[in-house]
Write a structure and sequence with these properties.
It is built from six helices and six strands. With 181 residues, the chain is of the alpha+beta class.
């Protein structure tokens, strides 16, 4: 019997999810199954009360999440007919998210938005590389919020005259897609 099962929890970090996945696979044999994994969004930031901030400004979180992705590959490799595919994380804005949560001065988080996108882009590069290693294509959510346009300013160094930016307006609170999406 074929079925689709979704398991998610707001704010869930990778360790709990991976432990759940391992218990789930061990308790119930799944034949010819492709598991899509989307983890890491909540690891990049830390929320205390109504304030969300970048957890750290180096590659520690990216490295840790990538290591946990490799742990998932090792777990799944114990089961013959089960495959895994990692999904990219879309960039998001904690300025907008903190504003949505009622922070009085969310603009103080602007520098952190840049850092989040840097970490997400690095993590996504690791996801693409890992998917390639295990013979899977990558679901690229960032493409859904990326806007590409021809650059009319010849002085700027761009990729073949094309400029990319993110269309964050589709994220109603800076993180989650709105109903029109």
């Amino acid at each position: 019997m074929n079925f689709v099962e979704f398991w998610c929890q707001s704010g869930l970090q990778k360790r709990k999810t991976i432990d759940h996945l391992e218990r789930r696979l061990e308790s119930r044999g799944l034949a010819s199954t492709l598991i899509y994994i989307w983890l890491g969004t909540c690891d990049i930031t830390n929320t205390e009360g109504n304030i969300t901030q970048v957890r750290c400004c180096n590659n520690t979180v990216v490295d840790t999440v990538t290591t946990q992705y490799r742990r998932i590959v090792n777990i799944v490799s114990r089961f013959n007919e089960i495959k895994v595919k990692f999904i990219e994380i879309p960039c998001y804005l904690i300025v907008a998210y903190n504003q949505h949560k009622g922070h009085k001065n969310p603009d103080i988080f602007k520098d952190q938005d840049i850092e989040i996108c840097r970490q997400v882009e690095l993590l996504n590069a690791n996801i693409r590389s890992l998917n390639l290693e295990i013979g899977q294509s990558t679901v690229r959510f960032n493409k859904d919020i990326t806007r590409r346009r021809k650059d009319t300013d010849k002085r700027k160094k761009t990729n073949n005259g094309i400029r990319s930016s993110y269309k964050f307006s589709v994220l109603y609170d800076g993180v989650h897609p709105g109903t029109e999406y």
